[in-house]
Specification:
By secondary structure, this protein is of the alpha+beta class.
């Protein structure tokens, strides 16, 4: 009885909420490789994880100094490439690179470098899009061609200790591509037993765990 009581108290202690101040709030979202057109017609790749979808819209958070944000606001076109977990090392190869030249001071300070051809650095295969200008990334199992329809400044006061602001970009998906191997035959449904997004969790890369069940609205 005493052992059970001690165990119960230990469990209660583990579940007690405490106040923390994490440096980032990435609780777990898919990695997206945003491709956008540079002024010279080449394609830039911006790895990011601040994205969410609703119906045919994707909302993105891109830092104000990123080449991807600059390109998106100018050209109004993007491709959102969703990588699988096995691609994480290729993504990390371009994580410390930027398409901005010169490199913004705050990025240079933490080790970023300029790269004009991120496809080559990562070993990705370029693939033409059908409705927009930026190239797709062939290795990514799901790709959204999209057009920028709105953009917003973040509300409220920006923290004084943050070196850069960001832009909230709303994009409309105009075409979806998926590897045949993850699509249920004869349908437009993704086979969730064959598709796993790469997740970004507090700056660590993860794949999905086992399927726990489905919502009542699931189509397949």
């Amino acid at each position: 009885m005493l052992m059970n009581t001690a165990l119960s108290k230990s469990v209660e202690s583990d579940r007690e909420h405490i106040v923390i101040k994490p440096s980032v709030l990435y609780v777990g979202t898919p990695v997206v490789l945003v491709t956008s057109l540079n002024p010279d017609g080449t394609t830039n790749i911006s790895p990011m994880s601040s994205a969410w979808t609703l119906f045919d819209r994707v909302v993105l958070g891109l830092t104000s100094t990123s080449k991807g944000r600059e390109n998106a606001m100018r050209e109004r076109q993007l491709v959102l490439n969703f990588p699988s977990p096995d691609l994480w090392q290729k993504i990390e190869a371009i994580a410390p690179t930027t398409g901005r030249d010169p490199v913004p001071p705050h990025k240079e300070k933490i080790g970023y470098r300029f790269e004009s051809d991120k496809f080559d650095v990562a070993g990705f295969t370029p693939q033409a899009a059908e409705l927009v200008g930026p190239l797709r990334i062939a290795e990514c199992p799901i790709q959204f061609e999209a057009e920028v329809v709105a953009s917003y400044e973040p509300g409220g006061e920006w923290p004084s200790d943050r070196p850069q602001n960001f832009r909230i970009i709303e994009a409309k998906v105009v075409r979806v591509h998926a590897h045949r191997s993850i699509v249920m035959p004869g349908s437009s449904h993704i086979d969730t037993t064959r598709w796993s997004p790469l997740l970004y969790v507090f700056r660590h890369y993860f794949g999905l765990g086992p399927d726990l069940g489905r919502t009542f609205k699931a189509e397949a």
